[in-house]
Specification:
single chain, mainly beta, 12-stranded parallel β-sheet, 5 helices, rod-shaped, Dockerin_1_rpt
C-alpha cells in the first residue's frame, strides 16, 4: 500500500508541520473573580473588556482548581486556547450542551502541565478545535459523558515530555480528529484512552511513537469497556533511532469495544531498525479489531496479541481484511480469534498459540517453517493456564496452503485443532496429527470440511495423538495413513482417497457415514474398529486385515468392496442392510485364538466373496437374516458356517460339493460344517452350484425357504424332504433305489434336473410330490427305474403335479400312483413311456395323463387327456379303469392275434369310459377286407360312452370301417361291397362309370381303388367285374350268372377298355 510504503516521508512532513511556530492573537487571561464563573462574564477575564471572542486567545494559567461555566445551548468562540498550570473543568449550566469553538486563524491550541476536563453527563460541552490540539508537559485532558471534542489534529506528548493523557469516557462522549493523531515523541508516557462506551473517530494517519521519539518514550492508545473507535491508517512504533528504548501499544479490551479501520487503509506495527522498540497491538477480553483492506504488516519489533488479558474469559477478535504478514522477529500470540481474510504470511515471524482461533481466508497461508522445512502448528498447552480448550487454525474460503515439507499439528504438551473449510485448497508434504515426545504428549485434531475443500497430502498421514474428520463433501488425498489410538470420520458425502496402506492400531477407529466414501490401497487393523453406515462406501483395492479383536461394522451402507480379506485373532465383520464384497480370497479365523473370528450377514446384508473362502478352526460365518454368496472355492480348515436365523447361503462354484452324512444330519460343504443347513427352517435359503450328496442314512430337510442346487444324488437310505418354498436342482438328479425325495407342504414347488443333459433325471427310489408341482428337466426323457415309486398328492384329496417337459419313462416294475396330474407333451417324440404301472388311488378322482402315452405297462384309475398309444407297435396291453378325454390310437397290421392293438380292461373295476377321439392307423400296407372285425377293447366292468370323434382310415374300393360298441367291447368292422365304387350298396354299371372316370388316379382311399394298392387301374376293373351284381345284403352268396343285358354292358365295357388302351 502506497501510504505504508512512503510512511517515513509522510511522517517527516506531518511532524515538521506541527513544529511551525504559531501566530500571536489578542490574549485574555482567566482570573475567575466573578461570583458565577461564567466564561462570558467580563469580570472573569483580564484585561477588562473580555470575554475573549473571535480573533482572541483564551488563556488559563491560574494554579489550583477552576470551573468555567458556559450557557447551555449557547455558543462561544475564540481563535486560540492555551491552558497551562492548574486544573480546569469546562461545564454547561444545564443538560443542554454548551458549544465552545476554537476557530481557524490559530495554529494551535495547547494544554501544557495542566488538567482540562471537557463536560460531563449532566453538564455537557461540545468543543471544537479546528486546527492543532497539543497535550504536553504532564498534561491531562478528559472528555466526559454526553460531551464531545472535535479536533483538526491531535498531538499528545510529542515535544515537551512528561506523562500526558487524553481520556474520553462515558456514554455519549466522543473524540473526533480530522487530520491526524500523534502520540509520543519526547520521552516519558503519552496515552489516548476511550472508556466506558465512548466513541472516537481518528482520520488520516494515527501515529503511536513518531520517528524521532526520545529514549524511554511510551505511547498507548486504549479502547476499553464497550468503547468504539473508527480510524484510517495506523502506525504503531514508527521510530528512526536504532538504539533508543521505547514502547507503543494499541489495546482493544472488553466486550463491545472495537477499533475499525475504514476503506483501503493499512496497519504498520514495529520497525526493522531498532531491536529495543516494543510495538504491540492487543485485542483481548471480547474486544474486536477490524483492519482496512490495505496491508496489515508487523515488522521485526511488532507483536500482535489476540486473546485474554487476565485469564480465560471472553476471547478477543482480530479481523485482518487486508493481506496480513509478519516479518522476521515479529510475534503473533493467539488466544482469541484471528481472522486473516486475505491470507496470512508469517514465514519470517513467530506464532504462539495459547488459547484461541486463527482464521485465514481469501489468500495464501504462509507459515514460518522449521529449519528442516517442516511446519509445526503447536497449539496451546493441553492443561492449566489458557489451555482448557484447543486453539483452532482455520483455513477458510479462498485460502490456500502450499508446502512440500511435512506438517505437524500439535506439539509437546499442547492442544491444537486445524480446520480447512469452505473450499480451501491445501497441498502439503506428510502430515502428523499429534506427537509423542520426551516433553509430554500432544493432543490434536484435523478437520477437512465443506464442498470444494481439498487437502492433498504428498506422503503419509499419521494420527498418533489426535484424530481427524472429513465432512460435508470435502476431499482428503493421502499416500498412506496410520491411525493409532485415535478416531477418524468421513461423513456427509465427503471422500478420502488413500492410495497406499491404511493402518489402524491400538484402539483406533474409522467411521464412514452419511454418504461418505473411503478408497484405500489396503487396510490393516489391530485392536481397532471400522464402521461404514448411512449409505457410505469403502473400497480397499488390495487386502483387508483385521487382527487382535478388530471389528468392521457395515450398516445401511453403500458398497464395501475389498480386494482380499484376512480376519483373524477374534476379529469380526458384521454386515447389516448393506453390501460387503471381496473380489479375491477371504481367510477367516486362525489356529491360536480361543475365541472365534466371525463374519456375520445380518438383516438385509449381502456378503459376496468372489474368490476362495478358507475357514480356519476359529473361523465362523454367521447368516442372520442376510445373504452370503461364495463364487469361489470353499476350503475346510476346521471352521464352520452357521444359519443363526433366516437368510441365504449361495455356493456358486460347481467345485464346492455338499454332503449330508448319516451321523447328525448336518450339511457339509467341501468338509465345512454348515450348521442348521441340514434342517433348514422357513426363511433359510440355500443355493449351491455344486452337487448335494445325501449319503446312506443321511437326511436333508428343508421346512421352508428356497433351495437351489447344481445337482442332487441321494444314496440308498438317504432322504430329501422339502416342505416349504421351492426346490430347484439345476443339474443331474440321481436317486438310488431305497432313497426318498419328499416335496410336501402346501405351497412348495420343486424343479429337478437339467434340460441340457441326457442324464438330467434318474430316480430309482421314491418321489412324493404332496400337493405341489415337481418339474423334471432332462434333454430327453426323465427316467424312473424299476424300483421307483412316484406318489402324487397328499392322500387327503389334494392333487399333486408331476411335469416332464421332454417326456418320461417308467421302467418295468416302476410305479406312479396317487392323485393329480402327470404333465408330459402330447407329442410322440416326447412320450410318457409306461412299461410299469400307473395307477390312480381313487377311481372317482382319476390320475390325469396329459401327454402321449405309450408302452406296455398298465393303467388304472386314470383319465387320458393326451394320447393313448398302446405298446410300441400293435400290442395287447392290460388296463384297469381308464377314461378317454383325449385321443386313443389303435394300430392295425393284420387280422391275427398280436397284429392289432388290443386293450384288455382286466384290472380293478375294469371300466372303459369313452370320449375324445378314436384314431385308427393301418401299418405296413395292410388293407383289411370286407367282413373283417377287430375287437380292440374288451372290459370286465363294461363300456360307457362313445368316442366323440372317430378318425378312421379310408379303405376305398367300396368298403370302410365301422366302430361297433357293445356292452363290454368296442370293435372295428370292415363293411361294404368290393367294387361298389359309388357306394350305393350294389355293384352295377354305375360303378364302372366311376372306375372309368378315375382311371390312372393315385392316392389313399380312392373310391375306384378296388384292390387298395393306391392306384386306379385295370386290376380295379377286374374287381368290379368279379363282384358285378352283388349287393351289400348278399355278400355271403356266390356270384350270379350275368343276364343278357348285363352281358351286353360287359361287352361294351371291354370295348371301351380297349379304346382306352389304344
Amino acid at each position: 500500500m502506497a501510504r505504508l510504503i512512503d510512511v517515513s516521508t509522510a511522517m517527516v512532513a506531518f511532524v515538521c508541520f506541527w513544529l511551525i511556530p504559531t501566530a500571536t492573537a489578542a490574549t485574555f487571561n482567566w482570573t475567575g473573580g466573578a461570583p458565577n464563573n461564567y466564561f462570558i462574564d467580563a469580570d472573569n477575564w483580564s484585561p477588562f473588556g473580555g470575554p475573549p471572542g473571535s480573533g482572541d486567545e483564551a488563556s488559563f494559567r491560574l494554579a489550583g482548581g477552576h470551573t468555567v461555566l458556559f450557557q447551555g445551548g449557547k455558543q462561544v468562540e475564540t481563535t486560540e486556547l492555551y491552558v497551562e498550570k492548574g486544573s480546569y473543568s469546562l461545564r454547561s449550566d444545564s443538560l443542554d450542551p454548551a458549544v465552545y469553538n476554537v476557530t481557524s486563524g490559530a495554529s494551535t491550541a495547547a494544554v501544557l502541565d495542566a488538567f482540562l476536563s471537557v463536560g460531563s453527563a449532566s453538564t455537557p460541552i461540545d468543543m471544537t478545535v479546528t486546527d492543532d490540539f497539543q497535550v504536553d508537559a504532564d498534561a491531562t485532558v478528559q472528555v466526559g459523558g454526553m460531551s464531545s471534542l472535535a479536533l483538526g489534529r491531535l498531538r499528545v506528548g510529542t515535544q515537551l515530555g512528561g506523562v500526558n493523557a487524553v481520556t474520553v469516557s462515558g456514554a455519549g462522549s466522543s473524540l473526533a480528529v480530522g487530520s491526524g493523531t500523534q502520540l509520543g515523541g519526547s520521552g516519558d508516557s503519552s496515552s489516548l484512552t476511550f472508556n466506558s462506551g465512548a466513541t472516537g473517530s481518528l482520520n488520516k494517519d494515527t501515529v503511536l511513537l513518531n520517528f524521532s521519539s526520545a529514549d524511554g518514550t511510551t505511547a498507548n492508545l486504549d479502547v476499553r469497556n464497550g468503547s468504539t473507535l473508527v480510524t484510517e491508517t495506523l502506525l504503531i512504533g514508527l521510530v528512526g533511532s536504532s538504539s533508543a528504548t521505547r514502547s507503543a501499544r494499541l489495546w482493544v479490551d472488553d466486550p463491545g469495544s472495537s477499533v475499525t479501520q475504514v476503506g483501503t487503509t493499512g496497519l504498520l506495527v514495529g520497525t526493522a531498525n531498532n531491536p529495543n522498540l516494543t510495538a504491540e497491538l492487543w485485542v483481548t477480553n471480547g474486544g474486536v479489531f477490524h483492519s482496512g483492506t490495505g496491508n496489515v504488516r508487523f515488522r521485526s519489533t511488532g507483536e500482535l496479541l489476540v486473546g485474554e488479558s487476565d485469564g480465560p474469559t471472553q476471547q478477543g477478535v482480530f479481523n485482518a481484511n487486508g493481506p496480513l504478514s509478519f516479518e522476521s522477529g515479529a510475534l503473533l500470540r493467539v488466544g482469541g480469534v484471528l481472522n486473516a481474510y486475505q491470507g496470512l504470511d508469517y514465514s519470517d515471524g513467530e506464532i504462539n498459540f495459547y488459547d484461541g482461533d486463527l482464521r485465514v481466508e481469501g489468500g495464501a497461508f504462509v507459515p514460518a517453517l522449521e529449519t528442516d522445512g517442516s511446519y509445526v502448528y503447536r497449539g496451546a498447552p493441553d492443561s492449566g493456564g489458557f489451555g482448557t480448550t484447543p486453539t483452532e487454525l482455520i483455513l477458510g474460503a479462498g485460502a490456500t496452503f502450499m508446502t512440500t515439507g511435512p506438517v505437524q499439528i500439535g506439539a509437546a504438551s499442547r492442544f491444537a485443532r486445524l480446520r480447512a473449510e469452505a473450499g480451501a485448497q491445501i497441498a502439503t508434504g506428510p502430515v502428523v496429527i499429534g506427537a509423542l515426545t520426551l516433553f509430554g504428549d500432544s493432543l490434536a485434531e484435523l478437520e477437512v470440511t465443506g464442498s470444494g475443500t481439498q487437502w492433498d497430502v504428498d506422503g503419509s498421514l499419521r494420527a498418533d495423538y489426535g484424530g481427524f474428520d472429513v465432512t460435508d463433501q470435502a476431499q482428503l488425498i493421502t499416500g498412506f495413513a496410520l491411525i493409532q489410538g485415535e478416531s477418524a470420520t468421513v461423513v456427509d458425502s465427503a471422500g478420502w482417497n488413500n492410495s497406499g496402506s491404511l493402518s489402524l492400531l491400538n484402539g483406533a477407529s474409522l467411521t464412514i457415514d452419511s454418504g461418505g466414501s473411503v478408497s484405500t490401497g489396503s487396510v490393516s487393523a489391530v485392536s481397532s474398529d471400522i464402521g461404514v453406515s448411512g449409505g457410505a462406501g469403502l473400497t480397499v483395492a488390495s487386502g483387508l486385515t483385521l487382527n487382535v479383536g478388530s471389528s468392521m461394522t457395515v450398516a445401511s451402507a453403500g458398497p464395501v468392496t475389498i480386494g482380499s480379506a484376512n480376519i483373524t485373532a477374534e476379529s469380526t465383520v458384521d454386515v447389516a442392510d448393506g453390501s460387503w464384497t471381496v473380489t479375491g480370497d477371504v481367510d477367516l479365523g486362525n489356529n491360536t485364538s480361543p475365541n472365534p473370528s466371525v463374519l456375520t450377514a445380518g438383516d438385509g446384508a449381502l456378503i459376496t466373496i468372489e474368490g476362495e473362502l478358507d475357514l480356519n478352526p476359529t473361523g465362523v460365518v454367521k447368516i442372520n437374516l442376510g445373504t452370503v454368496i461364495l463364487n469361489g472355492d470353499l476350503v475346510d480348515d476346521g471352521g464352520e458356517i452357521d444359519f443363526i436365523f433366516d437368510g441365504r447361503l449361495n455356493l456358486n462354484s460347481p467345485d464346492v460339493g455338499l454332503l449330508v452324512n448319516s451321523t447328525d444330519d448336518e450339511l457339509f460343504a467341501e468338509g465345512v460344517r454348515v450348521v442348521g443347513a441340514g434342517q433348514l427352517s422357513p426363511g433359510q435359503d440355500l443355493s449351491a452350484a455344486g452337487e448335494l450328496l445325501v449319503a446312506t442314512g443321511g437326511r436333508f430337510h428343508a421346512a421352508g425357504g428356497d433351495v437351489d442346487l447344481g445337482g442332487l444324488k441321494v444314496a440308498f437310505g438317504g432322504e430329501v424332504r422339502y416342505s416349504g418354498g421351492s426346490l430347484d436342482v439345476a443339474g443331474p438328479v440321481v436317486a438310488a433305489a431305497g432313497s426318498e425325495i419328499h416335496v410336501t407342504g402346501g405351497s412348495t414347488d420343486a424343479t429337478l434336473g437339467d434340460a441340457s443333459l441326457l442324464n438330467g433325471v434318474y430316480i430309482a427310489g421314491e418321489l412324493r410330490t404332496g400337493r405341489n408341482t415337481v418339474t423334471l428337466l432332462d434333454a430327453n426323457d426323465a427316467v424312473f427305474d424299476s424300483g421307483a415309486l412316484v406318489v402324487l398328492g397328499n392322500g387327503l384329496g389334494n392333487d399333486g403335479t408331476l411335469v416332464a417337459a421332454n417326456g418320461l419313462t417308467l421302467d418295468f416294475g416302476g410305479n406312479i400312483t396317487g392323485d393329480g396330474v402327470v404333465v408330459t407333451p402330447d407329442d410322440p417324440t416326447k412320450p410318457l413311456t409306461n412299461n410299469g404301472n400307473i395307477i390312480g388311488s381313487d377311481p372317482t378322482d382319476p390320475l390325469e395323463l396329459t401327454g402321449y402315452v405309450k408302452g406296455v405297462g398298465t393303467l388304472d384309475n386314470v383319465v387320458i387327456t393326451g394320447t393313448d398309444a398302446p405298446g410300441f407297435s400293435p400290442a395287447t396291453v392290460v388296463r384297469g379303469s381308464v377314461e378317454y378325454a383325449g385321443v386313443l390310437e389303435i394300430e392295425l397290421a393284420g387280422t391275427g392275434e398280436g397284429e392289432f392293438d388290443r386293450l384288455e380292461y382286466l384290472l380293478g373295476a375294469g371300466e372303459a369310459t369313452l370320449g375324445g377321439e378314436l384314431v385308427v392307423a393301418l401299418l405296413s400296407g395292410f388293407r383289411p377286407a370286407s367282413g373283417d372285425v377287430f375287437e380292440f377293447l374288451t372290459t370286465e366292468g363294461g363300456v360307457s360312452g362313445l368316442f366323440t370323434t372317430e378318425t378312421l382310415p379310408a379303405l376305398g374300393g367300396g368298403i370302410g370301417f365301422d366302430v361297433q360298441y357293445g356292452p363290454d367291447t368296442v370293435s372295428l368292422a370292415v363293411v361294404g361291397v368290393e367294387g361298389d365304387y359309388n357306394g350305393n350298396g350294389v355293384v352295377d354299371a354305375a360303378d364302372f362309370t366311376v372306375w372309368r372316370d378315375s382311371l390312372n388316379q393315385t392316392g389313399e382311399g380312392l373310391a375306384a381303388d378296388g384292390d387298395g394298392d393306391g392306384a386306379v387301374d385295370q386290376n380295379d376293373y377286374a374287381v368290379w367285374v368279379a363282384n358285378f351284381g352283388q349287393s351289400a345284403s348278399a355278400l355271403a352268396e356266390a356270384a350270379s350268372v350275368p343276364e343278357p343285358a348285363a352281358l351286353v354292358l360287359l361287352a361294351c365295357g371291354l370295348a371301351a377298355l380297349r379304346r382306352v388302351g389304344r
